[in-house]
Write a structure and sequence with these properties.
Radius of gyration: 32 Å
Structural class: alpha+beta
Number of strands: 22
Helix content: 10-25%
Low-confidence stretches: 143-149, 380-385
Shape: elongated
Largest sheet: 17 strands, antiparallel
Number of helices: 7
Distance between the termini: 34 Å
Strand content: 35-45%
Length: about 375
């Protein structure tokens, strides 16, 4: 032990050793304070300055909105996680490039003795939208519809996105646009990861529950592969969409009845306030083409709820002509372009804890003085002082 102490004292007399030790201590102190200043902190995404909500995805920038691990509030049916009642004078079209019609719908068709053909349940193109072949209506029925439209409340198309039987909630939901809209037109696409989903579409006139309907936008056409039928009855249509397959909703306003003003404003297809959806994380990502031909995904903003804390809550989902917007609330760890947006601030800490800040300043001063003495020990200038 004595020999070790003498060896340390011997080497400490060498100025090169003292300089190396002082530099190591200084580097350690700088690294420690750097790490302290880069500790990520959670933020309230609504109250932060600037706020980190809402987030926006623009079609021209190839951006997309994602939510991770969605769950529904206990006050709503567990199988339904997106729901919208529709709006007056808004015509809805839904397109599924690869989906299946439900067996319940086929069973319903088979109860109609006038039906001579039936669609198959194979995955195929399915389109649900306004009636395009009004020649199926008799002249008397056309005249009746024209007379009733001004007097009758318009039909609405409600949308429910729910789980298939026995399925778990999706791992993630993706919201994006492929084609831009216009002043009277809005559209977006959805894709669910990790599970099949069922989309239920129901067009009805809220003045009647059964039978044929009258009024604007009550007549619909359903195309399933080569099979197509038009109808004016409030029949729920269930369509099964496989995991990882996108489907599109389009909304067209009636002439002079646009609920939004101009191409830059938004339409809300789902009632997230009345129908809350909780999520683990909210992301805005950008798709960049790579030299190999495949697209790479770059994270722009990632807000993730804290472990063991309440999840983030979606408040609004809005659809513009060329952008989507998602408003959410809660405490989250926020990253921008892969870097934490909010970290520990020594300046703010010092303002709020001046006594601790003063002690740290004294320690820094003492450390610098020790380094000075270690480096210049035994020099001529030090001896004179």
């Amino acid at each position: 032990m004595v020999a070790l102490s003498e060896n340390i004292r011997f080497y400490w007399q060498k100025r090169v050793v003292r300089i190396l030790v002082a530099l190591l201590v200084l580097a350690g102190a700088i690294y420690l304070q750097y790490r302290l200043a880069n500790i990520p902190l959670p933020v309230d995404v609504e109250k932060s300055k600037p706020p980190y909500t809402p987030i926006t995805a623009e079609i021209i920038k190839r951006e997309e909105l994602e939510v991770e691990t969605p769950t529904v509030d206990n006050s709503v049916p567990a199988s339904v996680f997106l729901s919208g009642e529709g709006a007056d004078f808004i015509s809805v079209e839904a397109r599924f490039d690869s989906a299946q019609i439900s067996q319940d719908f086929i069973d319903l068709l088979q109860t109609d003795p006038r039906e001579r053909s039936f669609p198959t349940r194979a995955r195929q193109l399915i389109v649900y939208g306004p009636m395009v072949d009004e020649e199926v209506l008799t002249p008397a029925r056309k005249t009746m519809l024209q007379l009733e439209k001004p007097k009758t409340k318009p039909c609405r198309t409600s949308i429910e996105v729910k789980l298939a039987k026995g399925s778990n909630m999706p791992a993630a939901l993706h919201f994006f646009q492929v084609n831009p809209g216009s002043d009277r037109h809005r559209n977006f696409e959805i894709k669910a990861d990790g599970t099949d989903v069922v989309v239920e579409l129901l067009t009805r006139n809220f003045t009647t529950d059964l039978g044929e309907m009258s009024g604007p936008d009550c007549s619909k056409t359903l195309s399933i592969g080569e099979w197509r039928r038009s109808f004016t009855a409030p029949v729920p249509i269930d369509i099964v969409v496989p995991s990882g397959t996108s489907f599109r909703f389009s909304f067209t306003s009636a002439e002079g009845k646009t609920p939004w003003t101009g191409a830059g404003n938004f339409y809300e297809p789902f009632g997230l306030i009345a129908f809350p959806l909780n999520v683990r994380a909210v992301r805005e990502v950008k798709h960049e083409p790579s030299p190999a031909g495949s697209a790479s995904t770059l994270p722009i903003l990632n807000a993730r709820s804290l472990d063991g804390q309440p999840p983030l809550v979606l408040k609004y989902f809005r659809v513009g002509s060329d952008k989507l917007q998602l408003d959410f609330a809660g405490q989250a760890m926020v990253q921008e372009n892969g870097t934490y947006a909010v970290t520990f601030s020594l300046l703010d800490f010092a303002k709020q804890n001046w006594i601790v800040a003063a002690l740290l300043a004294m320690l820094d001063a003492a450390l610098l003085e020790w380094i000075r003495r270690a480096i210049f020990k035994g020099t001529k200038g030090t001896e004179k002082s």
